[in-house]
């Protein structure tokens, strides 16, 4: 694993509403993310996960503090860094294949080569047969898989993922988690992955940042030994899980998040991505 890729230095995000009340989604967060690492941001709804991811991806500027990637301050989105939004962000007027091709066209990849790679990415997420369909003809889980294919096909250097598997059934979800672990073993992108699912964080993360609310902050940072071999059934995974559960309990104490807070509904709005481009 390389040196520090992303530095988050004493970042605060603060909003003042019309009534003059301050909201602090992130309060003095500092974090170093290593090159090639898989970092999970874990926490209940409203703890500032998306806010932190938007800061890293350059969609939001902090009220104070700074974020830098490869030593350069992040001031806007960078095409080498791909963000997978919580709300898919598919283009409704493009087919599934057209959506996946989008990033490759922006990179001026030649058409035949682009199609070959886009089809391979769709096969990877199990949508090889849906290439000609349009987003409105897909289920939520299928849309999420198209968004994943679109992110992976450009082989990004940094991948920001905001609850990318939230709308998937457990079977597909497990398969894509395994696929993601394989991809990062082969290509070593730096991945920041937001989830509110404790098992998912324990299964995927080299490190897990447990976030807490009011104000939003990182309550614990768990570092797991490099070990890409463990399976879901292994004692090693059970151990990790137990450690993450313990950290969550410690972060929330009596105030443990309720089911509602850890399972927010998935909204759907391609406009967010359009606005971001
Ligand atoms: N533009 C804004 N103005 C005021 N408050 C905001 C703004 N954006 C986010 N917030 C507040 O910041 C807090 C954190 O929001 P954020 O979307 O980062 O949470 P999250 O951890 O991603 O939650 P979820 O799991 O539901 O996606 C919330 O209380 C939210 O209401
Ligand atoms: Mg969010």
Give a verbal description of the structure.
The protein is an alpha/beta fold. It contains nine helices and ten strands. A hairpin with a 5-residue loop joins strand 1 (4-16) and strand 2 (22-34). 40% of the residues are buried. The chain binds adenosine-5'-triphosphate and magnesium ion. The site of magnesium ion (MG) has 4 residues, from helix 1. The site of adenosine-5'-triphosphate has 15 residues, from strand 2 and helix 1.
Total discrete domains: 1
Helix content: 25-40%
Integer-rounded radius of gyration: 18 Å
- The helix/strand series, from N terminus to C terminus, equals EEEHEEEHHHEHEHEEHHH
Strand content: 15-25%
Q: What is the overall shape?
A: globular
In CATH's first tier, which class applies? Alpha Beta
Chemical compounds bound to the protein: adenosine-5'-triphosphate, magnesium ion
Strand order of the largest sheet: 6-7-8-3-9-10
Which helices and strands, and how do they pair?
Blueprint: E1 4-16, E2 22-34, E3 38-42, H1 49-57, E4 64-69, E5 72-73, E6 81-84, H2 96-106, H3 111-124, H4 140-153, E7 158-162, H5 170-187, E8 190-195, H6 198-204, E9 207-212, E10 217-223, H7 235-252, H8 259-262, H9 271-276
Parallel strand pairs: 3-8, 3-9, 6-7, 7-8
Antiparallel strand pairs: 1-2, 1-4, 4-5, 9-10
Bound molecules: adenosine-5'-triphosphate and magnesium ion.
Notable characteristics:
single chain; 277 residues; alpha/beta; Rossmann fold; 6-stranded mixed β-sheet; 4-stranded antiparallel β-sheet; 9 helices; 10 strands; 36% helix; binds adenosine-5'-triphosphate; binds magnesium ion
